[in-house]
Amino acid sequence: MKKLLSIVALSLLVFSLVYGVAALSAEAAGKKVGVAMPTQSSQRWIADGKNMKEKLEALGYVVDLQYADDDVQAQVSQLENMITNGAECLVIASIDSNALINVLAQAKSRGIPVIAYDRLLMDTDAVSYYATFDNKGIGTVIGKYVEEKTGLKDGKGPFNIEFFAGSPDDNNAHMLNAGMFEVLQPYLDSGKLVCVSKQTDFNTICTLRWSQETAQQRMENLLSGNYGTGKDVDIVISPFDGISYGIAAALEGAGYKVGTKWPLITGQDAELMAAKNIISGKQTQTIFKDTRILAEKCVTMVQAVLEGSKPEINDTTTYNNNVIVVPSYLCTPISVDKDNLVEQLVGSGYYTKAELE
Fold first, then answer.
1. Alpha helices (H) in the chain, listed in sequence order
2. CA-to-CA distance for 120 and 326, rounded, in angstroms?
3. Are 208 and 241 in contact (CB under 8 A)?
4. 249-304: per-residue pLDDT in tens?
5. Which of 2, 110, 168, 282 is spaced 20 to 30 Å from 320 by Cα?
6. The domain 22-127+290-330: what is its CATH number?
7. Where along the chain do its domains lie?
8. If pLDDT is split at 50, 70 and 90, which confidence band does 29 have?
9. CB-side exposure of 30: number of CA atoms within 13 Å?
10. pLDDT above 90 as % of the chain
11. How far, in Å, CA of 303 to CA of 59, rounded?
């Protein structure tokens, strides 16, 4: 009898699981989701789009994934086409956070929910939710990493430092910069950190479109104009791995060598090349933002709004886009350097050991 009851219970469990998947597929079947990504020039955006598409399609949604190659008007056109072609939800990682107001108004007029992905959509009430990492927290983590690794907290210094920020049209860049300076400004004030170029204002240190080439050119100018015999840069704050590559190239061009007065260089996104650079010593640190987790959280938001329920939210106060405070889910960033790289990136399955060789 016990064996029979066990078989019946197992059968009911299997039935309920199958029925649940079938019901979920029926709920999602035929519903179109437009996913607008900014560029394929960065590894992380390729991974983001791939993860999002795979997870949504596994639930039964029809996904229109588009990349705009950092062309704002192309992204506007892509979104207009998604709306015209019957998208019932839009997921948008914007190129310019302020440039989509009109097309978002079109989406709102048709009752299409919009989820901002990683980059907050500014100056609009047409955004329903926001899935991202804690952007100010990322800046704070970078600042605290520098504080710890250089011994600033213990009174060491002075160190020569130069600053880079992200794209001025990306709200994330402003928040990251604010978090970083919140930690490091007191050391600038005390003289333990010295910005030789005196370039600390966001409008001066920002890097349009997070461009590696633009960063390299600026770093070359900083080195030629402010550093020479007997004066070296000790720390370079970079908010993105791509910018870090440009900084490293400029340093090599100026005669700096890894292992010999090579500066501490930060980063963000844990790109594969950045991970390899950390292993070789060309980059010191990066911020690991597991895009699989971010994609998963965003997918649950899509699923919730299309099924008429409320998604999980853990922040309702931080992200004011100048019109509304956007309900958000913030994932946790992780600082990675040579000491924990294998544990975090390989141990989590983000990369294989072979990929890092």
1. 2-28, 43-58, 72-84, 101-109, 135-150, 171-190, 202-205, 212-226, 241-253, 272-280, 291-306, 341
2. 9
3. no
4. 999 999 999 999 999 999 999 999 999 999 999 999 999 999 899 999 999 999 99
5. 110
6. 3.40.50.2300
7. 22-127+290-330, 135-288
8. low
9. 2
10. 89
11. 9
Rounded-to-integer distance, Cα 186 and Cα 139, Å:
15
Q: What angle do CA 194, 197, 199 make, to 5 degrees?
A: 95
Residue written as token pair 């080195």: 223
CA-to-CA distance for 276 and 356, rounded, in angstroms? 6
CATH for 135-288, options being 3.10.490.10, 3.40.50.2300, 3.40.50.300, 3.40.190.10: 3.40.50.2300
Residue 325 CA to residue 321 CA, distance in Å, equals: 6
Cβ atoms of residues 49 and 37 within 8 Å: yes
Could you tell me the maximum CA-CA distance found in the chain, to the nearest angstrom? 88
Q: ∠342-345-215 over CA atoms, to 5°?
A: 105
pLDDT per residue as tens digits for the range 57-74: 999 999 999 999 999 999
Tell me which of 11-20, 78-87, 114-123 is least confident. Answer: 11-20
**Are 67 and 34 spatial neighbours (Cβ–Cβ below 8 Å)?**
no
State the DSSP H helix or E strand holding residue 265, giving kind and residue range, or none if neither: strand 264-265
Predicted local confidence at residue 228, as pLDDT: 83
